[in-house]
Amino acid sequence: QKSGYKHYMLKEIFEEPSCVAATLSGRIKSAKVHLPEIEELQDLLASSKTLKVVACGTSSYAALSFKYFLENLSDVCVDVEVSSEFRYKRPNFDENTVLVAVSQSGETADTLESVRLAKSKGAKVLAITNVVGSTLMRESDHTLLLNAGPEISVAATKSYVTQLVLLYLLGLKIVELRDQWNERCTKLIDSLLRLPEVLDATLSRAEHIKEVALKYKDFQHFMYIGRGLGYPTALEGALKLKEISYIHATAYPAGELKHGPIALLGPEFPVFAIAPFDALYAKMKNNMIECKARKTKLVVLTSDDCEDVREIADDVLSVNSFSEQLYPVLMAPVIQLFAYYIADALGHDPDKPKNLAKSVTVE
Ligand code: M6R
């Protein structure tokens, strides 16, 4: 039931605030993260130098955000690989390794094979999934559930947002276990609890996002750029756009532009910059100016406290000013709605993109 929404994708995007509330429910107690499901992994999580993470598609971009988040707060090295590569590489890990497998459906073939490989070497597997009783859940040692409710649309939306939130909770738990907790972590807990309300505020801007999206529906190409946590968001923005609108979209860390991709830019190749007013904003601004010098159209997704972006952008999309590390969550509905409105305007069904299935159960 689409509950009055034109597509499941749109309904699922608008469910994000309540899904995040469900993901958080019972998992924060006395300003600390409470995850009894991983109690048995505590010693390993406290001592391992490296944490391995496997996933595919959108789930792999949530995993990449987790890497940026956790490496910034602790000394653990987070090694993220797409499952289709991990499963065929030399397994250079042992029984002291924790492998986190992230899969909304819990049925993605490459992720399941990665888990089987890891288990055959004695590694401990922690699943992050949305589906109770999925193969991933059954074959893993431990599971953290997203609690996002069924996701019908092929395009992952609410599962991505809840993966981010759950991985951040896991990250904070790891920071605590490693005795690296500080004031920033306490502030992050407070911000996580406010996420449902701030996500609502992002969604209240849907009409403006639609207006901007419709201006760009006839372009054949798009380049998404970002730095730091903005980079996985750029990757996800590009994936969402190509997957449902069939517009060619690519994503780069903004600092890579000069190493090749900038050659593509011009009036026919717009740029979508993820540029919240964070520690890397000045660097992003330079990159955006370089893009404008190639006469590209520039859409900037920023935060409300960024005052000078309007001087360079053709169009500005914005979210509430918030904890820097949580911008990937707040910005997710914006990149999703941007892609959705373009796909819908072009007459495509975003719930059932051509050539794609909800779960990739074969290689
Ligand atoms: O169920 P999973 O999270 O394992 O799925 C992984 C990808 O197939 C999935 O995220 C895919 O990229 C989505 N269709 C993107 O919207």
Automatic annotation (TrEMBL):
<dbReference type="GO" id="GO:0004360">
    <property type="term" value="F:glutamine-fructose-6-phosphate transaminase (isomerizing) activity"/>
</dbReference>
<keyword id="KW-0963">Cytoplasm</keyword>
<feature type="domain" description="SIS">
    <location>
        <begin position="212"/>
        <end position="353"/>
    </location>
</feature>
<dbReference type="GO" id="GO:0005975">
    <property type="term" value="P:carbohydrate metabolic process"/>
</dbReference>
<dbReference type="GO" id="GO:0046349">
    <property type="term" value="P:amino sugar biosynthetic process"/>
</dbReference>
<keyword id="KW-0032">Aminotransferase</keyword>
<dbReference type="GO" id="GO:0005829">
    <property type="term" value="C:cytosol"/>
</dbReference>
<dbReference type="GO" id="GO:0006047">
    <property type="term" value="P:UDP-N-acetylglucosamine metabolic process"/>
</dbReference>
<keyword id="KW-0677">Repeat</keyword>
<dbReference type="GO" id="GO:0006487">
    <property type="term" value="P:protein N-linked glycosylation"/>
</dbReference>
<dbReference type="GO" id="GO:0006002">
    <property type="term" value="P:fructose 6-phosphate metabolic process"/>
</dbReference>
<dbReference type="GO" id="GO:0097367">
    <property type="term" value="F:carbohydrate derivative binding"/>
</dbReference>
<protein>
    <recommendedName>
        <fullName>Glutamine--fructose-6-phosphate aminotransferase [isomerizing]</fullName>
        <ecNumber>2.6.1.16</ecNumber>
    </recommendedName>
</protein>
<keyword id="KW-0808">Transferase</keyword>
<feature type="domain" description="SIS">
    <location>
        <begin position="41"/>
        <end position="180"/>
    </location>
</feature>
<comment type="function">
    <text>Catalyzes the first step in hexosamine metabolism, converting fructose-6P into glucosamine-6P using glutamine as a nitrogen source.</text>
</comment>
<feature type="active site" description="For Fru-6P isomerization activity">
    <location>
        <position position="358"/>
    </location>
</feature>
<comment type="subunit">
    <text>Homodimer.</text>
</comment>
<keyword id="KW-0315">Glutamine amidotransferase</keyword>
